[in-house]
Amino acid sequence: MFLDAYDLTTLSYGIDDVVKEFGLTPVLTGLVTSSIMIGTIVGNLVGGWLTDKYGRYSVFMADMLFFVVSAIAAGLAPNVWVLIGARFLMGIGVGIDLPVAMAYLAEFSKFSGKGNKASRLAAWCPMWYAASSACFFIIFALYFLLPAEHIDWLWRASLLFGAVPALLIIAVRSKFMNESPLWAANQGDLSGAVRILRDSYGIVAHEEPPAKTDAVKAKPKVRFRVLFQKPYLERTVVSAVMNVCISFEYTAIAFFLPSILAQFLGAGVFETISASLGLNALFAFTGGLLGMRLAWKFPSRHVAIAGFALQFIALISLALIGHPQATAGVVFAVLMLGLWLFAEGFGPGAQLMIYPALSYPTHIRATGVGFSRSLSGVGQRAGAVYSANFAGALRHQYVLDCLTGRTYPDYFPVNHSF
C-alpha cells in the first residue's frame, strides 16, 4: 500500500520540472501524468485474476520486481518516452499490488468489533496519506541534500528512491508474510491452510478427513463474467461507479495540489513542499484515521455520504472565492482545501476499498477488486488529462479555476451587442 501511494504521488510536485526539462506540450504532460494510471488499469485486471488463480503470496512477491525496475528506469530516463514507458510499467506494479493487498486485509481480519474487516480495509486510506506525506518529506530532505545548481534533479532522485521500499520488502518477505489460509482452503489445500494457521498465528487447527461419501470438489474457476451475474451484479455496479467518480475528483485536486498551493501562496519550491506536507499530515491523514474508527461503528454508505457532503461544500467555496489576493481569502482557501482532504480521508477515500473487497467471496475477491480498481484507473486518467489540458488551454494562473469548475466571465468577455 505504501509503495502504491508513493509511486502515484511522486510526480505531483516534480511534474513542473519534467515539463521544463523535456519541453513538454500539454498533451505530453497529460501522457506523463496518466501513463502510470493507464498501467494501473492493465495491472488491476491482470493482477486480480492472477491473485485469485495462483495465490496472494506468489503474485505479491513477483510484483515487487515491477516496482524496482520501473523506479530505476523512470529516475534515469534520458527522454520523455522512456519516462512514460517506465511510469506505465510502474502502474502495472501498482495495479497488481492493490488487489493482493485488499485480499490480504479482508482475509486476515475478524468479522465484527473493533479492528474488523471494514476497519482494516479503511486503514488503506491513512496509510495512503502517510505515504503521500512521506513522499513530500523525502522530497523535502532531497531538496536540501542536492546541490543548488542541480535542484532540477529532484524529481529523478524521488523516483529512484521508490525502489528502496520494494527491495526492503523482498529482503524480509519470508519472516513476515505467508499465503492466505482462506485462499489455500478454498483451493482444496486444507493441509496447507492448517500449516499456515499454525506457523503464522499459532492456531492449532486440524484437517478433518473427508468422509467416504464426500465428492471431491473442483477448484473454483476464476472468471470475470461471474461479477456480472446474480447475486454480484448490483455490487459490481455500485463499486464501479464509486471507483470512477471518486478517483476522478481525487486526481483532479490532490495530484495538482502543489500547483494549486503555489498559485494561492505565490510561493517557491520550499514553501510549496512544506504546505503540501502540512495539508496531507494535518487533514488527509487525520481524516483517514477517523475513517478507520467510523468504519466499524457506522454503515459505510452513511459515512461516504457525509464525506461527499463536506467535499461539496469545500469545492463550491473554492469555486466562489476563485484566486484570492487578500490574506484572509488565501487562508480560507487553504482551509477549504484542508476540509476537502479531511472529508476524502474519512468518507469516500476510506470507503472506496471496503465495497469491492467485502462484496465478493474468496475465490473472486481479488478479481472483483481488480475490476473495480481498473475503472478507478479510468477515472484517474480522465482527471489527469482533464486537468492538464485545461491548465494548458487557460494558462497556468487559471489552473485552480479549472479544477474547481469556476465560470470565466472575467477571462472570456461576452459581446452584448447581440
CATH class annotation of the largest domain:
Mainly Alpha
CATH-defined topology of the largest domain = Growth Hormone, Chain: A
| Overall number of domains | 2
Elements, N to C (H/E): HHHHHHHHHHHHHHHHHHHH
Low-confidence stretches: 394-418
Task: Please identify, by name, the CATH architecture of the largest domain.
Answer: Up-down Bundle
Q: Structural class from helices and strands? A: mainly alpha
N-to-C CA distance: 57 Å
CATH superfamily of the largest domain: MFS general substrate transporter like domains
Beta-strand fraction estimate: under 5%
Radius of gyration: 23 Å
Subcellular location: Membrane
Membrane topology: Multi-pass membrane protein
GO molecular function: carboxylic acid transmembrane transporter activity
Transmembrane segments: 27-50, 57-78, 84-106, 127-147, 153-172, 237-257, 277-296, 303-320, 326-343
Concise summary:
The protein has helices spanning 2-9, 11-22, 26-54, 56-75, 80-107, 117-122, 124-145, 154-161, 163-176, 181-186, 190-201, 233-255, 257-265, 269-295, 300-321, 327-346, 348-351, 354-357, 365-394, 399-404.
